[in-house]
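User: Can you predict the 3D structure for this chain?
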Amino acid sequence: MSGPVLWGYAVIVLVGFLPNEVWRFAALFIARNLDDDSQFVLLARVIATSLITGVVAKLIVFSGGELAHIPFWIRLGAAAAGFAAFAVFRRSVFAGVATGELLLIVGGYWSGLTP
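Assistant: Here is the predicted structure, written as structure tokens:
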């Protein structure tokens, strides 16, 4: 590889990777002495869960790109089936994501989106 290409990777590491890693290590250092049942940890879990729920709801209701071409009821059904698979298979994230994705693919194909 030539010099300019390596310089680009160095910029990515210095500007994108390292600033995030500082905060991750700081969080690990601070959180290592916290009790898992403390009010602070429970609050952090609630906030993280609500943020993820909001992002998923936004993707379902206000979809963009190719996902917007799949009818709303298919997107909603795929999310519901993914959640059901998550619950049935002992809280398996893989089962939930795989089920939802498979239904989105089948629903997209069925609704006229072909590769």
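The chain has a mean pLDDT of 89. The two ends are 35 Å apart (CA to CA).
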